[in-house]
Write a structure and sequence with these properties.
Blueprint (H helix, E strand, L loop, with lengths): L3 E4 L5 H9 L3 E4 L11 E5 L7 H5 L6 E3 L10 H6 L3 E3 L6 H16 L2 H8 L6 H5 L10 E5 L3 H12 L3 E5 L12 E3 L3 H6 L3 E4 L13 H4 L6 E5 L8 H9 L3 E6 L19 E3 L8 H21 L17
Parallel strand pairs: 1-2, 1-3, 3-4, 4-5, 6-7, 6-9, 7-8, 9-10, 10-11, 11-12
Amino acid sequence: MCAKIYCIREEGPIFRQRLEERGHELIIGNKIELDKLADVEVICPITCPINAEVLDHAPKCKLINKTGVGIDNIDLEECARRGIFVTNTPDSNYLAVAEHAITLMLAVGHHIAERHDLLKGSSPNWQEAAKFMNFECLGKTIAIIGFGHNGKYTAKLAAGLGMNVVVFSEHSKPEDMPEYATLAASLEEALAQADVVSLHIAASPSQRDYFNAEKFAMVKKGAIFINVTRGFTVNEQDLIAALKDGTISGAGLDVMPEEPPVHISELYSMPNVLVTPHCAAQTPESRDRRQIMQVENILSVLEKGEAPEGRLRNNPVKIDK
């Protein structure tokens, strides 16, 4: 039976081909257009909010299919109440995101952006660009905050660079740790010894301002701060203050409080901050895995009335087959 599937972007050739082969119709928009949802059974929203207002306009909706891990833009309880499944693609991008976290760490630690800015143009300032001291990984300690897929692979990559890996995770036990990582007894213990803090906590509304002035005060002075989860998990003004007073020597951010920015944050103009546009997962391999998992989610819900194992994010009333 043909279903209408509303997507905020063109997900890719694998996604389109496999769904159209099953007779499904794709509707592509660049935002949630309420007047186009009346007959839609699946919505792929990316980061667009899914709330009661949106769902009121989509009475036939059976599935909200989110890419990546974070589902902070979706009202899970409202979806569950209406019997709507919410799925994501948790294993599709963790390799790319972990590599990006390490890339940000190295780029900040080697002052790549600052040096680049000094050397570009018609009058490169060679002497000024050369004065920075670089960050050497061997023997340094990285604190991995959150130990899901992204955190685990970031830890593995950091260990490969000769770093000591300490983990803080409220959901892990010492026996869960790989041989190259140690579980800290508290967040304070992890932060106090960290030369690098890499944030990988699950993104949910309850984690807003998770990393704030109180936690920055726990960090070993001069540490590098990396965030590849969500911008709202870090208090923006507290991060700016920590960067200004030297608590944090530099920050690598793939996520910001507003995406794209409406009010331009001071973080964009700070020389010791490197920002990328929430692009950590953008690799061909991650894109292909994401498309395959999205199709699996959609077909499983539409054809079987159930979500693939490990990808259901709420508890809806079971859909009639």
